[in-house]
Amino acid sequence: MTSDTEAAPPSPTTPPPATDVVVHVSGRVVGPGVVTLPAGSRVVDAVTAAGGAQPEADLDAVNLARVLVDGEQIHVPAPGEAVDPPGPSPGAGGDATGGSSGPSGSGATGVAPTGLVNLNTATLAELDALPGVGPAISQRIIDWRDANGGFRDVAELDEVSGIGPSLMGSLGELVTV
């Protein structure tokens, strides 16, 4: 006999405990799909959990060392394939190119519906496409975002090493959070 105070068993859609991250691994992996890993896991762990990369995978296009974000999409491309995942990535999603995309309202990319690049969801390639921002500064933006839980204001971009007043002035109207 059960009482009204007993907890119902979790439903299949109940989110995992905060100690886990759930990510969608797609592209050139042996077993694409959704995997659950311990918090703090890295992209390489997600690729391994999906059966590993296929021989034709372009792992140089993937930042295997990046820490995973719950709800993101990791896309392992083929050589020459566009780095954006092939469809919307719900929730705090992203791709494995070093970015961490999230609820930008624009699907899988870090470009907001307004055409602005969202600092909290942009991929390495999207940041690199900004004027005056190369791959090194793009990676520093992503590293700062990961270390600080994301940007709360565009002005925080000034805290990223290599971004001075001149670059801030040119980026201010091209980025959002």
Automatic annotation (TrEMBL):
Region annotation Disordered: where it falls in the sequence: 1-20, 77-110
GO terms for cellular component: type II protein secretion system complex
Ranges annotated as biased composition (Gly residues): 90-108
GO biological processes: protein secretion by the type II secretion system
Bias-annotated ranges (Pro residues): 9-18
Domain Soluble ligand binding: start-end pairs: 22-76
Cross-referenced PANTHER family: ENDONUCLEASE/EXONUCLEASE/PHOSPHATASE FAMILY DOMAIN-CONTAINING PROTEIN 1, ENDONUCLEASE_EXONUCLEASE_PHOSPHATASE FAMILY DOMAIN-CONTAINING PROTEIN 1
Name of the protein described by the UniProt record: Putative comE operon protein 1
Taxonomic lineage from the root: Bacteria, Bacillati, Actinomycetota, Actinomycetes, Micrococcales
